[in-house]
Design brief:
Layout (H helix, E strand, L loop, with lengths): L5 E7 L4 H12 L2 H5 L1 E8 L5 H8 L3 E4 L8 H13 L3 E6 L8 H6 L4 E5 L11 H7 L4 E8 L9 E8 L6 H25 L1
Parallel strand pairs: 1-2, 1-4, 2-3, 4-5
Antiparallel strand pairs: 5-6, 6-7
Helix pairs in contact: 1-7, 6-7
Bound molecules: ligand NHR and glycinamide ribonucleotide.
């Protein structure tokens, strides 16, 4: 990705630990100096998202756009696009963002839109991935960073990490094990996108 001022906009819905991992890696790996890249904004569809508080403390522009205030997915996505585009993003990063995006949104950011999904895609697209992996008797689980297309959790895979499923695991214990790996692979995938 050539050029200077590569603004990264991160979309969250909750705790924002993947967002924080990316912000911290940007700092320790000097993304500004090396790639002209910085996390310009964090946007949540939930005003109560904990990640917004942390982002503000870091001096990052943080905004909430409540999807329930819009009549349709198209109307929400149009407002979200307007908010994102204020920052002229080179990359839009979904990090625990829980709203399915319309084809118009996906098309607008084609080639600039990535997600982290808590399963070894193409296994278990959609929700409740850890519970489903345990119920199926999977011996391994993990996470995938992928490009976002209008087909949910189906874009090109950019990074993956594998963890064991251990006897007695619950969705909570497995998701915590997967999350530690997400914090390694997501910053790595974003850095690779910035460096090409
Ligand atoms: N949008 C598109 N077009 N394509 C993808 O691959 C997307 C996407 C939006 C989000 C993240 C995804 C995940 O990693 C993601 C990938 C939300 C849902 C969902 O069903 C499914 C997958 C993902 C995110 N959301 C419900 C909805 O009606 C709301 C659920 C809730 O609020 O808890 O949008 O898993
Ligand atoms: C992460 O495990 C992420 O993979 C998952 O939600 C968690 C968000 O944690 N994403 C989805 O389930 C998307 N449907 P975080 O807010 O602490 O990054």
């Amino acid at each position: 990705m050539s050029g200077v001022n590569k603004n990264i906009v991160i979309l969250i819905s909750g705790s924002g630990s993947n967002m924080a991992a990316i912000v911290e890696t940007a700092r320790t790996q000097r993304w500004q100096a090396r790639f002209g890249a910085r996390v310009a904004a964090v946007i949540s569809n939930k005003a109560a998202a904990q990640g917004l508080v942390w982002a503000k403390e870091q001096g990052i522009a943080a905004a909430a756009l409540d999807h329930t205030a819009y009549d349709s997915r198209e109307a929400f996505d149009a407002a979200l696009m307007a908010e994102i585009d204020r920052h002229g993003p080179a990359l839009v990063v979904l990090a625990g963002f829980m709203r399915i995006l319309t084809p118009g949104f996906v098309q607008h950011y084609e080639g600039r839109l990535v997600n982290i999904h808590p399963s070894l895609l193409p296994a278990f697209p959609g929700l409740k991935t850890h519970q489903r992996a345990i119920e199926m008797g999977c011996r391994v689980a993990g996470a995938s960073v992928h490009r976002v297309t209008s087909e949910l959790d189906h874009g090109e895979i950019l990074e993956q990490a594998v963890v064991p499923v251990l006897p007695g695991d619950t969705a909570e214990t497995l998701s915590a094990r997967v999350l530690t790996q997400e914090h390694l692979i997501y910053p790595r995938a974003v850095e690779r996108l910035l460096s090409v």
